[in-house]
Amino acid sequence: MWESKLLKIGIAVLVVFSIIYIGTQITFVFRPIVAVFEALFLSFLISGILFYLTYPLSDLLCKFKVPRMLSMPIVFLVLIGVITFLGLSIGPNLADEFAKMINNLPPNIRQLNFLILEMSDHPFISKLINLESINLGSLTERLAVMASNTISGLTSSVSSIAGVIANLFTSIMVVPFLLFFMLKEKGQGTLEKLVDRFLPEDYQGLTKKVLAEINMKMGAYFQGVGIVCLCVGLLAYISFLIIGLEFALILAIIIGITNIIPYLGPFIGAIPAALIGLFESPAMMIYVIIAIVIIQQIESLFISPAIMGRKMALSPLVVILVILIAGRLAGLMGIILAVPGFTVIKIIVNQTYDHIQARKEKLE
């Protein structure tokens, strides 16, 4: 009975859940750990993403006989140069468009009310939706109140904004040190040394193999996603300029950023652009939708296959389910990290299973 595999698995699961439950009850012990994790999570996340985006340049310099300690300042100079160039080139236009968008918010709400009233007179719309049951005046008034309350709340809550800015500034200040450490340790095999020192010999090979595959997959993922998002953002900006859409830069940045979310991101990023186009005219909204559809077809047929390939080896259905579950559990951050997080778990499970099967075959 006690040799049953199912029983052993059940006991292991019960032990894990018991440890988790006890940990949630002993808050005075684990709360400081959680606080430290929350404080450093954003810094480690930004540093990790920058590491995967910059270490190819560091490795390339090392191949040309540049010492690693010298390659890291070069990487930092390139990174600072890129950020400075972007700030000087698009910063003023971005600030102007954002200020103009805030100023146009009340007229856009009135325009939305006018469009709804026009739609209510259309026979097809009146049959499809009973707009008479909707208090349009109340709806518009509520939207205006919500918008004004949001703006006034953001401007009046100086202390909250100052706290957020202080935390963000602290996190950003830590990022260069973490990035420097990551780039430095990559060439010295620190993780491998720790594995050799603290893990039993039977598990050293498995752990090194898992870490190597995770590092390869994460590097390919973040580098590929960065290039794809940049290409989609540039295509969106050029398309919006051609059709004459207002706030082209902000909307293109939104589309590029939301493209981080596989499959669902393009639809999320298209909503603000379609609404801005609708405020201008129904024809402009149609032009925006056509432009976004063409961009997404180019991205899905040419850009993503050429850059990403099948690096994650995940089916679309699995990706969508993982994103929905992660978004429910962890919000926006869960949506962004859903695919790489699930990929890490998949690598660990697959490599552990293969290791167990290999040991069984060896014993037999």
Structural features, described:
The protein contains 13 helices and no strands. It has helices spanning 5-25, 27-63, 68-103, 105-120, 123-128, 136-156, 158-186, 190-198, 201-243, 248-258, 265-280, 282-307, 316-363. The protein is an all-alpha fold. Helix content is 88%, strand content 0%. The chain folds into three domains: 1-102 and 163-186, no CATH class; 104-156, no CATH class; 189-355, no CATH class. It is globular.
Q: Topology of this structure?
A:
Layout: H1 5-25, H2 27-63, H3 68-103, H4 105-120, H5 123-128, H6 136-156, H7 158-186, H8 190-198, H9 201-243, H10 248-258, H11 265-280, H12 282-307, H13 316-363
Helix pairs in contact: 2-3, 2-7, 3-7, 4-6, 8-9, 9-10, 9-12, 9-13, 10-11, 11-12
Features of this protein?
364 residues; mainly alpha; 13 helices; 0% strand
Describe, in short, the structure shown:
The protein has 13 helices and no strands.
Summed up, the domain count is: 3
Q: State the share of residues found in helices, binned by percent.
A: over 70%
Q: Return residue spans where pLDDT drops below 50 for at least 5 consecutive residues.
A: none
Count every helix, treating DSSP H or I runs of 4 or more residues as helices. Answer: 13
Overall pLDDT score: 77
**How many β-strands, per DSSP?**
0
Element string (H = helix, E = strand): HHHHHHHHHHHHH
Report the radius of gyration as a whole number of Å: 26 Å
Structural class call reads mainly alpha
Rough outline: globular
Please report which band the strand proportion falls in: under 5%, 5-15%, 15-25%, 25-35%, 35-45% or over 45%.
under 5%
What is the CA-CA span between the terminal residues?
A: 23 Å
